[in-house]
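Q: Structure tokens for this one, please.
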Amino acid sequence: MRKAKESNAVYQHVRRAIQAGKFRVGDRIPTERELAADFKLSRPTISRAIRRLVEEGVISRNGKGGSVVRATPSKESLTFGAILWGLSRQHQEESPFGAAGNEILYRASLENWSVLLHDPTWSDDPTEAGLTSRYSTIARDLIARRVAGVFLMPQEILADQSVSASSAVVNDFKDAEIPVVLIDRDIVRFPARSSLDLVGIDNFGAGFALAEHFIKLGCRRIDFLAYHTRVPTQESRIAGYQRALEFHGIRCDPAAIHHGNLFDREFVLSTLRRRRPEAVLVVSDSRAAHVMHFALADGIKVPGDLRIGSFDDLASAALLPVPLTTMRQPVAGLGYLAYRTMLQRIEEPKLPPIRTELTCELIVRASSGAPVRVKAGR
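A: Here is the predicted structure, written as tokens:
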């Protein structure tokens, strides 16, 4: 069974290379010896793959001259799976990733291919009941349909975990020989990295850039408001924020990082009253919106008493009572590069893991305020 799967992988590789125009009619393809060396497989395994292509009329053997392309095979009809947060109607305003799913769908449609889009979440609570079960149900369905690959946004890593619960479905896809491209986050806790392809943003750089923006405005007491979970993207942003403080000679106080429920008014206000920061960085726009509303309702002026910055640049960020300074995620770019990465993984399954990080753009709005004026004589 294993040799049959290995032979099929070589068959698919050569067939798709011819489809893609890497080898045209009349061109010689790599010899069986060369393919055996590239794939680290036996000559008989390679020979079975070549024989299938000969039987299909795609190539012809040419003695010692090797095998020559005889005809371009018809294009396969591929179907992909996608398991992404924020696709469902009730989440689209609170998640940037609907755009990533739409971009994947659009790119596949240009090839007349299909994408089965799934959102396993019923809320944005990573601890919601049944979430892991829904991931498993979707995965079983995609495996049964024999999809060509899966774009996966894994479950967040909870406080008592070192690995995402989604590692179980990743293993199921691996057993079914279905390639997986992770989107946005890894399945292991930062700073560890898995061996999977991943397309996301440079969260460390985004955290650094946002913190530096407030530092250059004159802020020195800058706190970070974070989820109670330990999702890798968040932890990387925090690491970037900490590095910016250190880079500018500001002591990095561990007590300035707060993990909690940012939809909880009492948690947010008690933190702000106790710490009295000049600025806060909030892990996402949707959370920052609540922080801003809580602060304003409590008489805290934004940006006069408290400056606020965040990440994502949702459509609603510019429409808040005080327009929000934020790091814009290039989500359409995430979808496009995830799609290209998937095609490359299918084409060249032996490639080392591919990791792509896109740069965010700082969008400055009123919530970050004006530079601090230093009084004469100080």
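A few notes: The chain has three domains: 2-67, 79-201+331-360, 203-329+363-368. The first strand starts at residue 59 and ends at 61.
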